[in-house]
């Protein structure tokens, strides 16, 4: 068994705005494992400024994995526990090596029979840009839209009010993602305003790491709260249990590249379901390689909620896609 990797710099068609700043490009690494003439491909999608493994020795660890690819997976998993995106790339490449072609989790999804329902993602920008994106998603038939908020709440609130005047919650599910953009006191007011508009949920209203403040918000909130960045860097099962038991969120968001891949996601799902905490899966600006693997995994989880998988069309220099979006339905091209 041999392994090699290469770096790829994804360039945005249009800068992507979040409350953490504007993204123009996204670095990623493609891992290829070969054995007996077969090749498996995975993506190590480090997210600079957000990933737990955004550190100076990232590529050094990736080289180490390639040099030690013959080692058993349990040993590698332990060695890579502080590098969740590298472990995730390894998981993908091994599964692809086993199943061949562009397959990771063969299913009715990869046979092209059954699609995945996804939400439409609205990037931050001026009101006209956000409204243009929303109209485009509505025209395409989306029933669930997620808006990034937390930069200019006054204008964002107006957009949400307008949307809700036009579309009831039965017609359009609205989710918002603050990326930690509010203080606790601001969040309390925003949560009430969101409830008045029957917003489905808010992701990460305050910055991660403030467990007591987040627990207080989750206990009192009229709008369901979803933890997102909060899960990053929580590696040990005991810490995951501590977080869920202390904060008691209504939802958690699973981004495999940031939380240790398929196995890391499985662990969070199991712990959440034991506590009656709901969840959904979201991509995190992977290329079409990682997005394909995440979509195939997501289908096997049979979660009926709209999933957050629609980011493959953001880049000008993406790899060829195995996925096709028809309205809000994500299909596998076979």
Automatic annotation (TrEMBL):
It is an enzyme of class 4 (lyase). Its EC number is 4.2.1.113. InterPro entries: Enolase-like_C_sf (IPR036849), Enolase-like_N (IPR029017), Enolase_C-like (IPR029065), Mandel_Rmase/mucon_lact_enz_CS (IPR018110), Mandelate_racemase_C (IPR013342). The keyword Protease does not apply. Keywords: Metal-binding. Residues 127-224 form the Mandelate racemase/muconate lactonizing enzyme C-terminal domain. This is o-succinylbenzoate synthase.
